[in-house]
Design goal:
four-stranded antiparallel sheet, about 60% strand
Length: about 400
């Protein structure tokens, strides 16, 4: 009995301390964390054995928003006693555009999309290069190059699993997108299906499941985005959505209703355009709402205390050199502006939680005349219910 009482007293004390710690951080928000990036395009957060990591796809270096200097490593940071420290970097020295973390048979992998190089020559030589799959060492969590796959202006990797089979699909901008399947006998991914036009101008792939059916959304430069469904082991076209210059589609669910948020970057004359949210209705996606954005490139969805939020990374505006990225509350199928963050040509936003504290990370591509700049991590000041 005495041991039980002591255990309960210790547990209560620990619970009160954790409550105090969480509430203090929310009531006294810490300044943003800055970390070095070079033309950052994408952030990928993941956890291995309780340790939190942040992978940064660095695309370029130099003194222009679109520099030709693409010799830059992509990197991985880790959280160490509340500090963000450099953990590892790739041996790849070209323009990284996307990281995709996935797990197979208990092993952690990261796929890196390489968009372009310094090559010259015909047949899109600059963009025809290898993208890479890395395996994380089980002991050190360091990157080990595992497989190289030729891509043509790759923007994005998307991993998915169906019936215990693992797949990767790559968004090639200057070629067809390609689905790869994991071959256990060959111990590598092999080509499985080609999709889209000869030059698909693909930006992003998004995988979602509705009523046990697998769907995939391919966004591209134009003239429309395509929704595919998985049928008899292959992707088949399900729906076309007439939107151009869509860089990202983000799937989210609220009250068992499925939505897609589309980030539109440009309309041939201006970055000041309207992005859109679509709703799943009777087997297809239909437009629900539009919202003004400034060169939108990605959406992120997260939920805190049963409140749903959508955050958009705004990249550019003709009206000013620096444009905020914005967090909205999703209320009654409408967007209500909630908070703005200062970002510098933001290319991606990612949310994550560590020890009960929520954060938003912003990948900044260009600031103060250089692609070699700082990206930011903001503690998200949303007061938890336990602090009321």
């Amino acid at each position: 009995k005495g041991n039980l009482e002591e255990h309960m007293t210790e547990a209560l004390a620990a619970s009160e301390y954790n409550k105090y710690h969480i509430c203090y951080l929310h009531d006294n928000p810490q300044p943003k964390t800055e970390f070095d990036t070079s033309g950052a395009e994408h952030l990928e957060t993941f956890v291995v054995d309780g340790v939190h990591y942040l992978a940064v796809a660095n695309a370029k270096t130099g003194s222009s928003p679109w520099p030709s200097f693409v010799f830059v490593e992509s990197v991985i940071y880790r959280w160490d006693n509340g500090e963000l420290v450099l953990h590892d970097q790739t041996s790849v020295t070209y323009g990284g555009y996307d990281w995709e973390h996935f797990i197979m048979d208990g092993v952690h992998y990261l796929a890196l999309a390489i968009h372009d190089t310094d090559k010259t020559g015909p047949n899109r030589a600059r963009y025809r290069t290898d993208s890479y799959i890395f395996k994380l060492n089980n002991r050190t969590a360091k990157l080990e190059e595992y497989q190289a796959i030729e891509t043509v202006g790759a923007y994005d990797w998307e991993h998915f699993e169906i019936d215990n089979v693992h797949y990767l699909v790559v968004a090639n901008f200057y070629a067809q997108s390609v689905v790869y399947v994991w071959s256990k006998p060959l111990d590598k991914f092999v080509e499985y299906q080609q999709l889209g036009e000869t030059e698909s101008r693909a930006y992003d792939w998004e995988h979602l499941i509705i009523d046990n059916v697998h769907y995939f959304v391919a966004t591209n430069f134009g003239p429309h985005c395509v929704v595919y469904r998985w049928e008899e082991g292959y992707m088949v076209e399900h729906q076309q959505i007439d939107m151009t210059s869509i860089q990202d589609a983000h799937h989210f669910v609220v009250d068992n209703v499925h939505y897609l948020a589309f980030a539109k970057i440009y309309n041939d004359t201006s970055y000041e355009v309207e992005s859109a949210v679509y709703r799943w209705n009777n087997g297809t996606f239909t437009e629900l709402l539009r919202v003004k954005t400034s060169g939108a490139v990605t959406w992120d969805h997260f939920e805190i205390n049963n409140v749903h939020y959508l955050a958009v990374a705004n990249y550019a505006s003709e009206k000013k050199s620096r444009v905020d990225s914005v967090v909205y509350r999703f209320v009654n199928e409408s967007l209500v502006e909630h908070k703005r963050y200062e970002t510098d040509h933001a290319r991606h936003l990612a949310h994550f939680e560590i020890d009960g504290v929520f954060y938003i990370a912003a990948a900044n591509a260009y600031a103060s005349g250089s692609s070699d700049t700082k990206s930011y991590i903001y503690p998200y000041p949303e007061r938890p219910a336990l602090c009321d």
